[in-house]
Amino acid sequence: MKKKILIAGLVFGAFSLVASSAFAELQGQFNLSAKTTKYTASAEGTNFEENLDYSYVHSNEITGNKDKATRATFTEIEVRRGKSKPSGAQFGQYKIVNASGEKRYHYFFSDSITDDQTQSINYKADVEDLYAEMIVYADKKGVDGIQGNIMYDRFAYTP
């Protein structure tokens, strides 16, 4: 019995160590207005365990309902000029989240971070606690790599 508990403890401990290296980082914060605007930020991150650096440019085209917007309409998502050194980093899912927990997923899953992409979208959300999140698999094996190497790049939108 003690042997089973020890093995289970070792497995859980190893999983906890691997899973603990994933984290979210605020890559940009923007004040929304009534104009249709392309909000752009450079995003970057490092997987220290594998010494992998990545970067890309992220843009959301958004129209607010008024100056100091309370409601936003997302019309486009773009990623470009991505780099991974060494190569391998891949995008995961993209989502939009607000205070009520609404989510919309646009799939970049397993696409190389070096691929420039633009997608038209049509999503409306309240601005309260509004952010977009791009998941990046910062691993030489991309999505097939260690789950602890997932990075959550966030872009916040405020009135």
Secondary-structure map with pairings?
Elements: H1 2-19, E1 23-31, E2 36-47, E3 52-64, E4 71-85, E5 90-97, E6 103-107, E7 117-126, E8 130-137, E9 150-158
Parallel strand pairs: 1-9
Antiparallel strand pairs: 2-3, 3-4, 4-7, 5-6, 5-8, 8-9
Describe the protein.
This protein has 159 residues and is mostly beta strands. It has one helix at 2-19; strands at 23-31, 36-47, 52-64, 71-85, 90-97, 103-107, 117-126, 130-137, 150-158. The chain is built from 1 helix and 9 strands, in the order αβββββββββ. The longest helix is centred in the first third of the chain and has 18 residues, at 2-19. The chain is elongated and about 45 Å long.
List keywords for this structure.
disordered N terminus; 159 residues; mainly beta
